[in-house]
Amino acid sequence: MRKIMLVVVFLCLTIASKANTEPSLTEVKVGTELKIGEASSSTYQHLILPRKNFIIKRGGLANYKSLKKLTVVVTAVNTNSDGNVEVTLKRKNGKRFFNSHPTIKADYNKALEQKELLKK
After folding, report:
1. Does a structural domain hold residue 94?
2. 100 belongs to a structural domain
3. Sign of the torsion formed by the C-alpha atoms of 17, 19, 23 and 24
4. What is the DSSP string of 17-56?
5. Who's near 4: CB < 8 A, 6+ residues apart?
6. How confident is the prediction along the chain (120 residues), in pLDDT tens digits per residue?
7. Total structural domains in the chain?
8. Residue 6 lies in a domain
9. DSSP label at 94?
């Protein structure tokens, strides 16, 4: 009887652990509105932003502080081979980031944890 109970408990734990490991892809969909928060350190770690020299070459203004409190819309959702969810973001008002780049990318889960991206 004890062996049967042990097997049943083991099966329940296995099923419960599989149910909790679903990807967070269901949380974010194309068209979801997010807000850009403050940088987790001196620069954004989980938003994939162009380097300053590329912004300047394209005629833009390299001011990363201007991103704070911008409302953005998810235009694409990709899952990497590592299981990380990468989202492509564009500004809600249709303008370009830094007056040079129409979209930027972000590591969705890590950016939410560090509050670089906020759910609206």
Report:
1. yes
2. yes
3. negative
4. HHHTT--GGGT--TT-EEEE---SSSS-SSEE---HHHHH
5. none
6. 888 888 888 777 778 776 655 444 447 899 999 999 998 788 899 999 999 999 999 999 999 999 999 999 999 999 988 889 999 999 999 999 999 999 999 999 999 999 999 998
7. 1
8. no
9. S
- Counted residue by residue, the chain has a size of 120
Record the tokens describing residue 92, joined without a space.
Answer: 């809600």
Structure tokens at 104: 């930027």
- Other C-beta atoms within 10 Å of 70: how many? 16
Phi/psi for 30 (5° steps) reads: -65, 130
Domain assignment present for 12: no
- Judge whether 24 and 85 are in contact, CB under 8 Å: yes
- Taking residue 34's Cβ as centre, other Cβ atoms within 10 Å add up to 23
Domain limits at 65? 24-119
In eight-state DSSP terms, residue 65 is: G
